[in-house]
Design a protein that fits this description.
Strand content: under 5%
Helix content: over 70%
Protein name: CKLF like MARVEL transmembrane domain containing 5
Keywords: Membrane, Transmembrane, Transmembrane helix
Order of helices and strands: HHHH
Distance between the termini: 85 Å
Radius of gyration: 26 Å
Structural class: mainly alpha
Amino acid sequence: MLSARDRRDRPPEEGVVAELQGFAVDKAFFTSHKGILLETELVFGIILVSIFAYDALKIYRTEMAPGAIQGDQQ
């Protein structure tokens, strides 16, 4: 029987399974209330970031860009 020390000193496993070991998906979590809330918050956050980025670009085009163009014409 392997002791905790033997398991700790083993070389890491190779392959795809070892790479994805920390990224396991818990399907029970995503179907729970907390998981559904997390998914909703992520989607809402993506929508908000998109709106803020669009608004910042619109403000930049209307206020900053014409000033630079008018300065060049004079």
